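job 3f2a | input accepted
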Amino acid sequence: MMLDSYLTVNQEGSSELMIQKSRFIGYVRRTETEEAAQQFIESIKKKHYDATHNCSAYIIGQHDQIQKANDDGEPSGTAGIPILEVLKKQQLKHTAVVITRYFGGIKLGAGGLIRAYGKATSQAIQATGIIKRQLVQGFTVTVDYTHMGKLENELRNSDYILQATDYQEQVSFFVYVKNGEEDTFKKWMTDLTNAEAHIKTCDQTYIDINITSPSK
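job 3f2a | predicted structure (216 res):
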């Protein structure tokens, strides 16, 4: 069952921090499939082939069906799981994270490692930015030009999303409506145009709505 909305990250981002002389580089990417997540992880491992560790975790599926974590040589449970826990705590879906570590000579201990990988993950996600994927229903509303000005103004001042306008013999507005608000929208369009609008239902899709912008 498709969710009305869910949280994920912007397409891709990264950040870096130093903890006790160890260098932690966090990489984040939105990944819609497990294959894409694995390819992303392998690409970072290839990029940082000389790193001490490339630890990772990902969550795939609207209902978190696939959850994987990898310590990549760090003590069991001190890297991959802390990364995964940050993803779960922030309720992120379709998200993969790799934390690359260059060891600086000072051992952090189990507790220190857990905190370090968690902090590196949170910082990388903040640097990438979080968005909401909103399920919407597409509509095409076609009217005579006599209705164009009023309808366009009303749409732009509403919570509906005016995606595009097509000017032909008549004018057509392409509008996205949140899932569950379809009947309300159609009635509104009918009332505004005295039932002269031709309303066509298009495909359902997800659109991105910024929750947090990428940090600089």
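job 3f2a | Residues 144 and 170 are 5 Å apart (CA to CA).
job 3f2a | closed
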